[in-house]
Specification:
With about 325 residues, the chain is α/β, with parallel strands linked by helices. It has a single domain, classed as 3-Layer(aba) Sandwich (Rossmann fold), CATH 3.40.50.1820. The chain is built from seven helices and eight strands; from the N terminus they run αβββαβαβαβαβαβα. An eight-stranded mixed beta sheet has the order 1-2-4-3-5-6-7-8, sandwiched between helices. α2 packs parallel to α7. The protein is globular and about 50 Å long. It starts with a helix and ends with a helix.
């Protein structure tokens, strides 16, 4: 029979080892790094939508978020923010990209800037920088807190927490008016956590040029004196369908200034890309942008979004 001393020793030793093991597990290894784990089942909502009101300055102008989370998504699955055109139909934009998201492995978040709360091109395409973007002035400059652009990072942070993502950056895709929105978002929110950006089939562009007045350039706008070199270093794709050549297409702006960019979306996309590349060369900046024209595709969201998904994730 074991002595009382032996029993006492074993008991104390066992307790000490258990305590040591517990403490040891709480100390992270210096080699620990984020691991790819499945998104928590309770947070996986598949295909759904919700009303976003968490950004206080625009709380009275809510944004409905249409999203799709593949059921095999992990904490490291890429997140793509998708921006609709003038139809303001984010549900359509999300739905038409679901098959690509499931196939290529990315999460879709499509904010909808409704006509009810964001009724004009000023409040959507031009980011609500000015009360009247076609007539910019210091007195009509809106506070940055109510720029439409200012809601995007809060949307990302909100959805990141909701789905349990470990990512600190996101990809961006915008088509037509959405293409206008995203290239201006890049310009006016240079510190945004953008990983890669695709501006597709924009009707016209704000040039990275401080000798041209806003909205066609940056003169008389908050970034007039900015250095754009870091933006040329971003991973940006300018894409457009080769058949997107109708000069009389609806919502296609024409005037003496914008027609210098070309008379249709196809030539304007080329102009924006080549002028941006020239500006980068003149400033000795790295230029990581790419231009793609899409064969057999006109002003078509489905074909253009499929190409964008392939460029980003294939």
């Amino acid at each position: 029979m074991k002595s009382l001393k032996t029993i006492l020793f074993v008991t104390l030793a066992t307790g000490f080892f258990a305590l040591w093991s517990s403490c040891k597990e709480d100390v992270p290894s210096i080699n620990d790094s984020p691991t790819e784990t499945p998104v928590e089942p309770a947070k996986m909502k598949g295909t759904a939508d919700l009303l976003f009101t968490d950004y206080a300055p625009l709380k009275n102008n809510p944004i409905r978020l249409y999203y799709h989370i593949p059921f095999n998504a992990t904490t490291l699955t890429p997140i793509l923010l998708v921006f609709h055109g003038t139809d303001r139909n984010a549900q359509y934009s999300r739905d038409e990209m679901i098959a690509n998201a499931d196939k290529l492995g990315f999460i879709i978040i499509a904010p909808e800037f409704s006509d009810q709360y964001y009724p004009t091109a000023d409040s959507y395409n031009l980011g609500n920088i000015f009360v009247d973007g076609d007539n910019p002035s210091p007195t009509t400059l809106n506070p940055e807190s109510i720029w439409t652009f200012s809601a995007i990072e809060p949307i990302f942070n909100f959805m990141k927490a909701r789905i349990g993502s470990s990512l600190n950056s996101y990809d961006v895709f915008g088509h037509s008016a959405g293409g206008q929105f995203v290239h201006r978002y890049l310009l006016y929110k240079p510190l945004a956590k953008i990983n890669r950006l695709v501006a597709a089939s924009s009707g016209w562009y704000t040039m990275f040029d401080n000798t041209i007045n806003f909205p066609y350039g940056t003169k008389q706008s908050p970034v007039e004196s900015s250095n754009y070199n870091n933006l040329f270093n971003k991973k940006v794709f300018i894409i457009v369908g080769e058949l997107d050549t109708d000069p009389n297409s609806s919502e296609l702006r024409h005037n003496e200034i914008v027609d210098k960019q070309g008379l249709n979306r196809f030539t304007r996309a080329q102009y924006f890309y080549t002028q941006s590349r020239t500006a980068a060369i003149q400033s000795n900046s790295a230029f990581n942008w790419k231009y793609y024209s899409l064969k057999g595709i006109g002003h078509d969201f489905v074909g253009t979004s499929t190409a964008a998904a392939n460029y980003l994730y294939q």
